[in-house]
Amino acid sequence: SYRSLSGDFYTHVHDLPPQLGSCARNGHGNACEAHIDGLNGSDAWSLPLPDVDPFEPLPCGQGMQAARLEAAEALLRNRTAVTAFALRALAL
Q1: How many CA atoms lie within 13 A of 3 on its CB side?
Q2: Which of 1, 11, 50, 78 has the smallest C-beta neighbourhood within 10 Å, fewest atoms?
């Protein structure tokens, strides 16, 4: 499906410019980069988080409740891997 192929915003902001080689920053992405990195003034990482993210909107037709349900289902479906990832510092 498309969702599994689409990149995340961190990759688009930080990893793609060096990979593409001849592309150069033009300043139009500064607001997005500040938002992703949580830089001062971006209010991206201020609690409580807003329901709507201007840089990563919900898919068309998907409401907030459906997005929360999808996230909960994904977490439960991958609970074994998520638990192992969360406990990796304990070296269990």
Answers
A1: 4
A2: 1
Measured over the CA atoms of residue 10, residue 90, residue 83 and residue 43, the dihedral's sign is negative
Mean pLDDT of the chain: 79
Q: Three-state DSSP class for 76? A: helix
What's the confidence (pLDDT) of residue 1? 45
3-class DSSP assignment, residue 14? helix
Retrieve residue 41's tokens: 């003034």
Task: Please give the Cα distance from 32 to 36 (Å, whole number).
Answer: 6
Give phi and psi for 4, each to the nearest 5: -75, -20
